[in-house]
Design goal:
4-stranded antiparallel beta sheet; 6-stranded mixed beta sheet; binds magnesium ion; 2 domains; alpha/beta; 246 residues; binds adenosine-5'-diphosphate; 32% helix
Length: 246
């Protein structure tokens, strides 16, 4: 079942054609690995889906409806989340504060809004219970194990009922142990029916978690196939241009 379909998306920055007639389909619960050399257009594609940039031509269907996200909050409110490097948690905040970051709950007392800590702790506890995690809402993230950090990141996507998670180089600048955690996080999201686009330069990561591989070269899509029908050698050749398309 297609949750997202990009139809003939093009994007120019002045004379630069960052994307040329790109079609891309994403199914529910599917992980698509998006690869390509620097400047191939990967981040631009993600930013168009996330409402950061608008395409010059083409259309986006989300749940079979045409959408036009003019700003990131529109995409986010529709269930499209972007996760940047290292799960992007704030170490100095509690688990609950991370989950509710920029979506804090308030209560009014004589018309004056106060942060509703009790409600945020309660909702966070409920999310951790659902995830069967021992993570405690009041604990600071900097004191947490990798598994607990992951639970916080997943709880955040559950809170917003994310349907699509876009990851731009989430494993670029982290340790081997953390990479394993991020890959595990991707599998857990997928198991909950969330669709994922993973941008990464790390071939083993992409091959480990993706169902499909899409390769961009100079703004054009040059491959889109099941991961089991491809190989790291083929993808490298596609990225460099040694192989025109596959
Ligand atoms: N905000 C921008 N303004 C101008 N040019 C941009 C901008 N963002 C990206 N580009 C250009 O678009 C092309 C694709 O960039 P990008 O999507 O960042 O590639 P990738 O993520 O694959 O490395 C590059 O030529 C880049 O210089
Ligand atoms: Mg990029």
């Amino acid at each position: 079942m297609s949750i997202l379909a990009l139809k003939s998306i093009s994007k120019n920055f002045g004379a630069i054609e960052a994307l040329k007639n790109v079609n891309l389909n994403l199914d529910k619960g599917q992980v698509v690995g998006l690869m390509g050399d620097n400047g191939a257009g990967k981040s631009t594609l993600i930013k168009i889906i996330a409402g950061v940039f608008q395409a010059n031509t083409g259309e986006i269907l989300y749940n079979d409806q045409q959408v036009n996200f003019s700003k990131p909050i529109d995409a986010r409110n529709s269930g499209i989340e972007v996760v940047y490097q290292d799960l992007a948690l704030c170490d100095n905040l509690t688990a609950a504060a991370n989950i509710f970051l920029s979506r804090e709950l308030f209560k009014k007392f004589f018309y004056i809004p106060f942060l509703n800590y009790k409600k945020m702790y309660d909702v966070s506890q409920g999310l951790f219970d659902e995830l069967k995690s021992e993570t405690r809402p009041r604990d600071e993230v900097k004191l947490m194990s990798g598994g607990q950090r992951q639970a916080v990141a997943i709880a955040r996507t559950k809170l917003t009922e994310a349907k699509i998670v876009l990851m731009d180089e989430p494993t670029a600048a982290i340790s081997v142990r953390q990479v394993a955690e991020v890959l595990d996080y991707i599998r857990q999201l997928r198991d909950q029916g969330i669709s994922i686009i993973l941008i990464s330069h790390r071939m083993p990561d992409v091959f480990e978690v993706s169902d499909r591989i899409v390769v961009l070269r100079r703004g054009s899509k040059v491959a889109d196939k099941k991961i089991s029908n491809s190989s790291p050698e083929e993808v490298t050749a596609l990225i460099t241009g040694a192989l025109q398309s596959a």
